[in-house]
Specification:
Elements lengths: L2 E5 L3 E2 L5 E8 L7 E7 L5 E7 L6 E3 L7 E6 L4 E6 L8 E8 L14 E5 L2
Parallel strand pairs: 2-10
Antiparallel strand pairs: 1-3, 3-8, 4-5, 4-9, 5-6, 7-8, 9-10
Length: 120
């Protein structure tokens, strides 16, 4: 079955960096767009960005553009999120997701997510 398992969440100080990873299985990874989403306390699901199947293009929400980078390894069926210049507004549960075709908003999550807490 389809599995997406997020990891790498941690407590990090403001201004710090963190790298999240998502391991996938159960679907043809190289045929799918991959995304990162987050859910902040008291707020809804936010799509942070997506990367195309080849890994040659990525798109980001304005809230993270210039600070976050999505990458993928099609040999390992993984997708990563490199986060820099973290601030308290980035505290959230982070999820990865997928879609067969590009969509600016993704509403389906598959895994449990990984908690990122930005605090001094």
């Amino acid at each position: 079955q389809v599995q997406l398992v997020e990891s790498g969440g941690d407590l990090v100080q403001p201004g710090g960096s963190l790298r999240l990873s998502c391991a996938t299985s159960g679907f043809p990874f190289t045929a799918y767009w991959m995304y990162w989403l987050r859910e902040r306390p008291g707020k809804g699901l936010e799509t942070l960005g997506g990367i195309n199947p080849r890994g040659s293009a990525a798109y980001y929400a304005d809230s993270v553009k210039g600070r976050f980078t999505i990458s993928r390894d099609n040999a390992k069926n993984t997708v990563d999120l490199q986060m820099t210049q973290l601030n308290s507004e980035d505290t959230a549960v982070y999820y990865c997701s997928k879609s067969r075709y590009y969509s600016p908003e993704i509403a389906t999550i598959y895994g449990r997510g990984t908690q990122v807490t930005v605090s001094s």
